[in-house]
Amino acid sequence: MKQDNVNWMKGQVTIQVRGEAPEAFINEALAGGIRLMGLRWSKDRLLYCEVSLSDFFRIKPYLKRTGCRMRVKGRKGLPFMLARAEKRIWFAGGLALFFLLLFILSSLVWKIEVVGYERLSEEQILQAAKKEGIRLFQWSYRLDDMNDISKRLTSALPDTNWVGVEKKGTKIKIQVVEQTKPEQLPLQSPRHLVASMDAVVTQIVAENGKAVVTKNSRVKKGQTLISGIIGNETNSKIVVAKGIVRGLAWYEYSIETPLTQQAKVYTGNKKTSWHLVIGSRMLQVSGFGGMKFDASETITKEEQVSWRNITLPFGRLKKTVMETATEERELTVEEARSTAILQAKADVLEKAGLDAIIVDEIVLHEKTDNGKVYMKVLFEVDQSIVKELPLVHMQGD
Hints:
Helix content: 25-40%
Strand order of the largest sheet: 11-9-15-21-20
CATH architecture of the largest domain: 2-Layer Sandwich
Largest sheet: 5 strands, antiparallel
Order of helices and strands: HEHEEHHEHEHHEEEEEEEEEEEEEEHEEE
Number of domains: 5
Structural class: alpha+beta
CATH superfamily of the largest domain: ACT domain
CATH topology of the largest domain: Alpha-Beta Plaits
Radius of gyration: 45 Å
Strand content: over 45%
Distance between the termini: 133 Å
CATH class of the largest domain: Alpha Beta
């Protein structure tokens, strides 16, 4: 039993010996001081035995002299157990290092997002946040409670009703709600409200001043609609005329639309590349070289790595470049006609204002010639028809 313990401490290797003269190998090895233990033969005349680890490294010359070959069939003992333990230690150490790095990376602030500001600048908000310790690559555990930081930022930033600070993983979001200030209207001088164009009045409401035209009146451009002079000849007063006057106005358009239109289409050819994203930096790792397109459109999709409720500061980005081409499309006369009228309507509403209403459209003339549709269209529009006319020069009267 004692000898078994000694052999285990030294380490034992079980070997298989094959060749023309395994008996000669046994004699040579024993004569050379090699201790062969547990000698046994298999049914197909293969020799099996155990040798100590130190003898194992001395056995090769005896094999060579006797024309035999050796194969290792087993290992046992302290040296082999220590070797396996060392491998496990490195694995365990690597695993521990991975989780340590994961913890470190998830404990840093990698991104600061500021939203909701209008009058304040992002730089002002970030400077105030920096004084509270909120900056890139800051340790999360060093930050105060988010509610406390929120209150202090609200006090520090002028004209804010509330500043919210929220931490999600490695990202901090600062939401700013600014104070709503009443719009300061400019001081107004006395004035008339006059017609901005020829029209037929459809509505007139005088909030201040005197209406001098009525509904359904036809007015000319520049004609007074709401007067800034109230009272009579002996007792009059100059005021700032205010009110609503709407009327029917007319817009005439000459339109031409080709029967052949060009449209962008995807050919199906594409090139994909992958990028490693770390914080705000990006490194391309695949999709180098390859196809080049004369016309293309790029689509990007970013995926960040997350663990439980923590979003980690690294991920990957997929960039797909899609080849595009221009394709001609033949329109019918009716399609070309509808397209032309829609474009003209959009132009009318842009000129007449957002509150304008197209009441009617009348096609005065239409023809098709040389692959185009030619039209003359009259639009009837209900819109505001007022503009201001100052009365400053009359104040001395």
